[in-house]
Amino acid sequence: MNQFFVTAIAEKVSALKTEAYFLERQSRGDLAAFDDWLSSSPDEPPIEGDEPPK
Question: Where is this region: Disordered (predicted)?
């Protein structure tokens, strides 16, 4: 029973740390720079094998 609780607590702590990590990364994000990066990609069809599924 104790191992079950320890595992559940470890999973919760891991989830909270992951959330904090992504919130911190989000705060450093720059949407304008992301849009610039996307617009700089070439306007070509995908390489064979990289097409989106139909």
Answer: 35-54
